[in-house]
Design goal:
Layout: H1 3-20, H2 25-52, H3 56-62, E1 63-64, H4 86-107, H5 115-138, E2 142-143, H6 150-156, H7 158-186, H8 192-217
Parallel strand pairs: 1-2
């Protein structure tokens, strides 16, 4: 894992958000979409590996084999008790992201269906999420074993997915609570935008620290430029 790639991707995301003139909550949406993109990328690569029996050059370039200490902990299908398939992951993550979006839009006082605001924010968030995905791929944050089925390979990545999903949801709640408290305390005389930027910058720092600690725990190298 190269920390410079990580920091570069996040700085670019912040610059794009500031340059677009959009609300910094775009970064929170982007983190949410990045969870979805990471899941889809893992599933596509793992499915290709399961069919071919080997990774191929692209798989070796953008993913890594699980470390000796890493274990697959896939979500379980509640009915069969077997490792869950991609549909279960998609339903849970999409539901969470939709809930976060609705809560943020309602909490900001803007109608959720005000498309002239929603569409630009989502568009920028999707672009930034693609940058995060590129960072995941070039940093080999996706774990795919060449001799395991897709469900098991999804399980190797559950920890990262759970963390990102939880971080996005908690950040949304903290943002709403903080904004409402500050609004009551300062009678709307405080810079709301500063509160939003602070929370999203903290979210980015937490994500970086989590990835670094995970790599070190699994015995993988963590490099500076």
């Amino acid at each position: 894992m190269n920390i410079a790639w990580h920091l570069g991707a996040y700085v670019l995301a912040v610059v794009l958000t500031m340059g677009s003139g959009e609300n910094p909550r775009v970064l929170l949406y982007a983190h949410g979409f990045s969870v979805l993109f990471r899941l889809i990328a893992i599933w596509l690569i793992a499915t290709a590996v399961a069919k071919q029996g080997f990774k191929g050059k692209l798989g070796e370039l953008f993913t890594r084999e699980p470390g000796k200490r890493e274990r697959s902990r896939p979500w379980q299908d509640g009915r069969s008790g077997k490792p869950a398939g991609i549909i279960v992951y998609l339903v849970v993550i999409v539901t969470m992201l939709f809930t976060v979006g609705v809560v943020l839009r309602m909490g900001s006082g803007a109608g959720f269906l005000s498309l002239h605001v929603l569409i630009p924010e989502v568009s920028w968030a999707l672009l930034i999420a693609l940058i995060y995905l590129a960072d995941d791929l070039f940093n080999k944050q996706l774990v795919v074993s060449s001799d395991k089925p897709t469900s098991i390979n999804l399980g190797y990545n559950v920890g990262g997915l759970n963390f990102l999903t939880g971080a996005v949801f908690i950040s949304a709640i903290v943002l709403l609570v903080t904004m409402n408290f500050a609004s009551w305390l300062f009678q709307n005389s405080y810079p709301i935008i500063a509160v939003e930027w602070l929370i999203f910058l903290i979210l980015g720092a937490i994500r970086l620290i989590h990835d670094v600690l995970r790599e070190r725990k699994n015995g993988n190298p963590v490099e500076l430029p």
